[in-house]
Structure formats: structure tokens, C-alpha cells
Amino acid sequence: MKTMNYVKICMLCVFTLLLTACGKDDNDNSMDARLCRTWIEEYTEDNITYTHQLIFTQAGYSGQELKKKYDHTTSTANTETRDFTWKWKDSSMECLVLSYGAGEIKYLENVWIREHYLNGKLGGEWIMMTDANYMK
């Protein structure tokens, strides 16, 4: 009888652990979770490679924008990095407000996040970015 109770308790513990394993971290498909990663766009034009990177984190709803320009003819690079905080403009989750501080704000409008792609209009320019981990 005591063995049967012990088995029931063990089975209950295993079942409880299995339920918690399917929690937010493993299966979170919210817009925040889908957004919070490193996005990158890279192209070459006239022997210059342009890299644009956006990093979104849920911790403090912060992020970083990196723009890099590499001139292949002179082997010179110019990099600009800026920190920002972000929030959704409203509950439709189609527009992000990026605040760079000192009153400077950019909008990422028409946000469309697919499995490995982020599209939208950032500060008036259309962007199509790829998940940096997907590119490896």
C-alpha cells in the first residue's frame, strides 16, 4: 500500500514537471518574443557593403541599432551604434516606437514578423531584415 502511494506521488511529480516544461520560454509565440532577437540587413552597392542591424531585448524593452559601411576599394569601415528603448504604439502591434533619448524618436511602421524575417518602414525607409541566427 505504501509503495502504491509512493508511485502515485512520483507520477504526480513527473506530470507536474512535464506541464511546467511547456512554459513561456519554450513555446512563447507572442509578438514580443518573436521580435526580441538580432535582425540584420546587408547589401553591397558600388563596392561598398552596408550592414544594418537591430537588436531587440525584452529586458527593459531596450535595443541597439548598428549601421556599418565598409568600402572595399579603400578597406575602410565606418560604424555607428545607438541604443534605444522600444514599445508598441498600440495594441494592434503594427507599429514600434523607438526612443533614442533626447527626444529623438523613430517609428517602425507596418511591422510584419514572420519566422525568420522582419519587414517594415523604419523612419520612412522600407527594410527587410533576416534573423541573424538564421543566416548562419
Which descriptors apply to this entry?
136 residues, alpha+beta, Lipocalin, 2 domains, eight-stranded antiparallel barrel, 8 strands, globular
Structural account:
The protein has 136 residues and is of the alpha+beta class. 24% of the residues lie in helices and 51% in strands. It is built from four helices and eight strands, in the order H-H-H-E-E-E-E-E-E-E-E-H. Strands 1-2-3-4-5-6-7-8 form an eight-stranded antiparallel β-barrel. The model is unreliable at 13-26 (pLDDT under 50).
Q: Report the count of strand segments.
A: 8
Give the rounded overall mean pLDDT.
86
Q: Tally the helices.
A: 4
Number of domains: 2
Based on the coordinates given, report the CATH architecture of the largest domain. Beta Barrel
- Terminal CA distance reads 56 Å
List SSEs in N-to-C order.
HHHEEEEEEEEH
